[in-house]
Write a structure and sequence with these properties.
Distance between the termini: 48 Å
Number of helices: 4
Shape: globular
Helix content: 25-40%
Number of domains: 1
Strand order of the largest sheet: 1-3-6
Number of strands: 6
Structural class: alpha+beta
Largest sheet: 3 strands, antiparallel
Radius of gyration: 15 Å
Length: 145
């Protein structure tokens, strides 16, 4: 099996953690990740994620800052690649940048945008249920008193 520049294997394993960085306030609440966080971009027809779990947090936030670019980085939703595949989607390595992957296989129904949106949201809800509560950036940066 070949490895990528990041040192990760080319194949994204089912047990790998994926991080979806939250850059908009409509993507989460303090306790819940919302489906909007996982919906695919219209342009690329995929959802960008990073192959990284909660630890080490310093590297997680460094990757997140790079992924967010000029956008605000509010937090992150973390789930396993198996959850993506259980939703009948796929996740494939998509470097560069390092650790980047893409959730692909979203339904596209050009003739019926309302049905397309409903099907995508249903799949995003499956991902959200696997992600659990978001890890919010201010929770990590809070210093002990």
């Amino acid at each position: 099996m070949s490895t990528l520049d990041s040192g990760l294997p080319e194949h994204v394993g089912d047990e790998e953690y994926l991080a979806r960085f939250l850059t908009q306030s409509n993507q989460y609440t303090a306790t819940v990740v919302k489906p909007a966080a996982f919906l695919p971009s219209v342009k690329g027809r995929e959802t960008s994620v990073s192959r990284h779990g909660r630890e080490p947090e310093e590297r997680l936030w460094s990757i997140g800052a790079e992924a967010a670019g000029a956008r605000n980085l509010h937090g992150v939703a973390i789930l396993k690649a198996r959850a993506v595949r259980d939703a009948q989607l796929d996740v494939l390595a998509a470097e560069p940048p390092p650790y980047h992957a893409a959730i692909r296989g979203w339904p596209w129904i050009e003739a019926d945008p309302a049905l397309q949106k409903a099907r995508q949201k249903a799949l995003a809800l499956q991902l959200v249920s696997s992600a659990g509560a978001p890890l919010l950036r201010n929770e990590v940066q809070r210093s002990p008193v």
